[in-house]
Amino acid sequence: MIADPAEYIGEPGARIDVVQPGGDHERVHGGRSLSTAIAFYLFMVILGACFLPSTNEVPATFRAVVLWQFRMAFLGMQLIMWTTFDLVFGIVAERTLRSERPFIALRRRDMPYAT
User: Fold this and answer.
1) Using CA atoms, how far apart are residues 97 and 90, in angstroms rounded to an integer?
2) How far is residue 15's CA from residue 36's CA, in Å, rounded to a whole number?
3) What is the dihedral of CA 87, 89, 91, 93, to 10 degrees?
4) 1, 9, 42, 108: which could form a disulfide with 14 (CB 3.0–4.6 Å)?
5) Which candidate, 17, 13, 11, places its Cα nearest to that of 31?
6) Domain ranges of the chain
């Protein structure tokens, strides 16, 4: 059992919700790191939108039909690629989980070629 949950996460200001046996939630540590990260991200996006120049990469003489066909082809390629990844991962994961000898992650010392 870990005495201090922050040691497990490795972040002293991490927010951790601990569920008590009775179902009550207790907030451990400050919990400000997530809100600080979100605020910093929003600040950087707004800063970039204000100070970076706007670009129009499509010339005025470029036909809209060609651009639309390119966008539809791109979406189709993305759909095919991610569907293939999902199906292959699902098949491999199902075989691994149903096998008699499940996959065991190797530690660094088990790999002789690792440095």
Assistant:
1) 10
2) 12
3) -150
4) 9
5) 13
6) 1-55, 58-115
Angstrom CA distances, 63 to 58, 66, 68, 77, stand at 9, 6, 9, 22
End-to-end CA distance of the chain: 31
Contacts of 103 (CB under 8 A, 6+ apart): 96
* In contact, 102 and 96? CB cutoff 8 Å: yes
pLDDT in the model for residue 96 = 81
Task: Name the amino acid, one letter, at 108.
Answer: R
SS3 per residue for 24-81: CEEEECCCCHHHHHHHHHHHHHHHHHHHCCCCCCCCCCCCHHHHHHHHHHHHHHHHHH
Q: Is 84 helix (H, G, I), strand (E, B) or coil?
A: helix
Residues 6+ apart with CB under 8 A from 8: 2
**Number of other CB atoms surrounding residue 13 within 10 Å:** 13
